[in-house]
């Protein structure tokens, strides 16, 4: 067996971004809905952004998600573990739901690495988790605008290694929008299949007060 | 005898009897690899218990199925997930080094052949003091990776 050594890289820590608004969920007086995710103190509207889907078609976030429970995640296909684990967990649970329920849910994956994540690459990657998942890309300004609108920290490219590979820092949370296209709940990394199985039906049932 | 006691402690803490591997002076438990989604990379998770009074260092890894291995570590804590590549990781004296989702993993790069769930791969870990330790690592789906990580976290509560 040939021996290879770990490559050595100096890495700069990525500057911290504005706080994730979900951190303030506790300030809203707990979680009146019994959800496992973090209920936002203030619901946020679906970003008014048009992306491109994996078929190369324009995808208007607000138009396409109207009437659906939408789970939105920013990640990238070279992502070592956070992205595939989120996607695998959601895929595993969505497949266990009644079809009538699953049909009311859209799962959107927005790349934070549009330079490497071509639509075809995103499609192939998402199909590992569920072929119904919708893959989106866009220019960096559109991706940044969508993150900003949700008070998520902006994604940031890490330094490249000797092979040109690089890691991307991005928000770890999945954002859940109710069918009225309002972001209501954040799901941080560490959320489990049992939590999704618990929350997804509830997210479609809850009568939300206020906006 | 001391070694046997240490192995028992290690297995007891992880609640995962039977999966421990003991070579040299560190014990490796709960090793598994995520089934890669392409032939570019695969993440490996494991726990290292150092029963000695001196810290050790995980300084590299090799496997016949990958051209190289990087050690990735989560930068800081907070709403952003940012990984960085590091050259080595310390295993504290009488302590654990845990490679688990969201915090640290070994990334096997350029896979040939690409492992699939159900496979077992040979992985040689290089420790500064304990030397090379070769373990057998089962390959599991990402769905199972997530469940295993959750079960390990529960067992430590």
The neighbouring-strand order within the major sheet of chain A is 1-10-9-4-5-6-2-3
Outline of chain A, from the CA principal axes? globular
Which structural class do you get from the secondary structure elements of chain A? Answer: alpha+beta
Largest sheet features of chain A: 8 strands, mixed
- How many β strands of chain A by DSSP? 10
Distance from first to last alpha carbon of chain A: 61 Å
Rg of chain A, please? 17 Å
The class by helix and strand makeup of chain B works out as alpha+beta
Radius of gyration of chain B: 15 Å
Reconstruct the topology from this structure:
The complex is a heterodimer of chains A (211) and B (157).
Chain A: E1 38-45, E2 50-53, E3 58-60, H1 61-64, E4 69-75, H2 82-94, H3 99-102, E5 105-111, H4 119-127, E6 134-137, H5 140-149, E7 156-157, E8 168-171, E9 174-178, E10 182-187, H6 193-205
Parallel strand pairs in A: 4-5, 5-6
Antiparallel strand pairs in A: 1-10, 2-3, 2-6, 4-9, 7-8, 9-10
Chain B: H1 2-14, E1 21-23, E2 26-34, E3 41-50, E4 56-62, E5 66-74, E6 80-81, E7 83-86, E8 89-91, E9 95-99, E10 104-111, E11 120-127, E12 131-140, H2 142-156
Description:
The complex is a heterodimer of chains A (211) and B (157). Chain A is an alpha+beta fold and 211 residues long. Chain A contains six helices and ten strands. In chain B, strands 1, 2, 3, 4, 5, 7, 8, 9, 10, 11 and 12 form an eleven-stranded mixed sheet that branches. Helices cover 18% and strands 50% of the residues of chain B. The longest helix of chain B is centred in the last third of the chain and has 15 residues, at 142-156. In chain B, a hairpin with a 2-residue loop joins strand 1 (21-23) and strand 2. Chain B starts with a helix and ends with a helix. With 157 residues, chain B is an alpha+beta fold. At the A-B interface, helix 2 and strand 8 of A face strand 4, strand 5, strand 6, strand 7 and strand 10 of B.
């Amino acid at each position: 067996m040939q021996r290879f050594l770990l490559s050595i890289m100096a890495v700069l820590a990525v500057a911290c971004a504005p706080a994730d608004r979900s951190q303030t969920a506790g300030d809203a007086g707990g979680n009146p809905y019994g959800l496992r995710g973090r209920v936002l103190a203030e619901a946020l509207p679906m970003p008014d952004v048009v992306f491109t889907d994996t078929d190369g078609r324009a995808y208007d976030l607000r138009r396409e998600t109207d009437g659906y429970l939408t789970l939105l995640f920013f990640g990238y296909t070279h992502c070592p573990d956070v992205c595939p684990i989120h996607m695998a967990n959601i895929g595993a649970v969505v497949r266990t739901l009644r079809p009538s329920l699953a049909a009311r849910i859209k799962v959107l994956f927005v790349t934070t690495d549009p330079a490497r994540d071509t639509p075809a690459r995103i499609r192939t990657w998402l199909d590992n988790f569920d072929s119904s998942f919708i893959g989106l890309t866009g220019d960096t300004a559109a991706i940044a605008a969508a993150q900003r609108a949700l008070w998520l920290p902006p994604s940031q490219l890490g330094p490249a290694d000797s092979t040109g590979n690089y890691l991307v820092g991005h928000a770890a949370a999945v954002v859940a929008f109710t069918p009225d296209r309002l972001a209501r709940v954040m799901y941080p990394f560490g959320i489990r299949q049992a939590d999704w199985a618990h929350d997804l039906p509830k997210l479609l049932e809850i009568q939300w007060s206020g906006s | 005898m001391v070694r046997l006691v240490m192995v028992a402690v290690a297995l007891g803490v992880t609640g995962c009897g039977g999966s421990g591997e003991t070579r040299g002076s560190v014990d490796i438990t709960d090793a598994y690899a995520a089934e890669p989604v392409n032939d570019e990379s695969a993440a490996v998770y494991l726990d290292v218990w150092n029963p000695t009074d001196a810290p050790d260092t995980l300084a590299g890894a090799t496997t016949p199925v990958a051209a190289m291995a990087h050690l990735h570590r989560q930068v800081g804590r907070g709403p952003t997930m940012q990984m960085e590549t590091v050259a080595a990781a310390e295993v504290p004296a009488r302590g654990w080094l845990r490679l688990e989702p969201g915090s640290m993993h070994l990334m096997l790069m350029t896979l040939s052949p690409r492992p699939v769930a159900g496979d077992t791969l040979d992985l040689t870990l290089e420790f500064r003091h304990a030397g090379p330790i070769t373990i057998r690592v089962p390959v599991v789906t990402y769905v199972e990776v997530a469940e295993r990580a959750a079960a390990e976290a529960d067992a430590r509560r």
